[in-house]
């Protein structure tokens, strides 16, 4: 009897060794994706493999993989003989600087990273977990799109992902990295996420490729021109940033995650900071030039306010007349929206309104306080803007600011004219603390335009007109009329801006503001 037990124990030990060996072999095969040859060709294009990308993105040894052995169920077109483990996407979770994120990384070496029903199911599984557990989803896209052999099953799979993108919107941050082809309806999953990052020269996004474009419209265009990183960061604004290569893109996403809360149930992380909050910046006293028509760089103000001068800019290459991005004050994340006098005098137009509105809505959804730095001569006039609907697009920013219930602190550095004064997080849109520098000018419009309208009868008399302009400036080219009415809470010294703004946000940390109940609003689109 005792001998039998020993014997069966030995057998068991032997079997276990085999089982472990098999597991190890199966894992090894799954890790090879589409095989060494295809991996080599991926690397030859300057791209990392799906697994290398995950390794770089996550903290060392933190990746927990799911569904490594999932295979597709397709039996058409000889697919039953081609069942690579993992089905072209690596999924799971891990940490970035110790904070949890869910991740999927499409493997182009496996059937071109194409999306089958099971491939989609793997992505949906981690999206569901991310929503339940409150952690961001980062998708690394490198795919030939819907798996052609699977037909409608594959389209259905995409639909399931889209629906989850919609449900996760405003619940957990969603980040899309485009690191290879992304074509057809496949672009609509990234389009519904919060941020899209592309890699220069190796990634593209379009609804229909150059061949279809040629057939339908007779236009001849390369894939790069149609949907490369430059097109989408500079022209279409579909993407938020473009990076030189996979490594840089991944490093920047790690940096971004550090600014964000893991979900709408949590506050953004507080980082240790080593920068005196009362730091005085005397150079800010002379940032605004004497000549009101001379531009200056608003980025200088942002970096001089921010902890350690660190500004993470979003959409840096699009609508340069407005700046959007994240800074930290006393270690806490703050979203910044700032008119940029260096570009088109900081005017609001369709592109800048859309860019800023989306950013404001992201901040509000994820409890990130908003700092608005204002130097705006108004909305850009003209038929181009009106025909393209500047009224509705401008209203997006107005609406976004007005519906945002996060702490809102505003500083007017120079011009705040007309409708743009109201739009840019004015007191009237329930901003909490509104500051102005002594150089602020808050009026319906500039002196010249105003004089031409209200003193039309004197237009032939240059002296009288000059006097009217001087009178107008005397009355309005200052922050005190607004301050007298309480529209500006305090006129502050430029040099002490960092301290005043940090203290304002500190006082607002427990802010609670509720809006009337509704199913959802109807923001102008
Ligand atoms: C199945 C695919 C595939 C796909 C690529 N492959 N795309 N397999 N379904 N959609 C396979 C190829 O057969 C090949 O297999 C391998 O992936 C690599 O592809 P190559 O063509 O050799 O690579 P490359 O020259 O780099 O070209 C990449 C590509 C091209 C531009 C993405 O493969 C391509 O045009 N694919 C089809 C794209 C497409 O039309 N997809 C459908 C879009 S519509 P082997 O075995 O040779 O390695 C869509 C609808 C979504 O996605 C709708 C959502 C609602």
TrEMBL record:
GO terms for molecular function: acetyl-CoA carboxylase activity; propionyl-CoA carboxylase activity. InterPro entries: AccD/PCCB (IPR051047), AcCoA_carboxyl_beta (IPR034733), ClpP/crotonase-like_dom_sf (IPR029045), COA_CT_C (IPR011763), COA_CT_N (IPR011762). One of its GO terms (biological process) is carbon fixation. Keywords: Ligase. PROSITE patterns: COA_CT_CTER (PS50989), COA_CT_NTER (PS50980). The keyword S-adenosyl-L-methionine does not apply. One of its GO terms (cellular component) is acetyl-CoA carboxylase complex. The keyword ATP-binding does not apply. Pfam families: Carboxyl_trans (PF01039). Residues 279-519 form the CoA carboxyltransferase C-terminal domain. Residues 16-272 form the CoA carboxyltransferase N-terminal domain. SUPFAM superfamilies: ClpP/crotonase. Belongs to the AccD/PCCB family. This is Propionyl-CoA carboxylase beta chain. It comes from Planktotalea frisia.
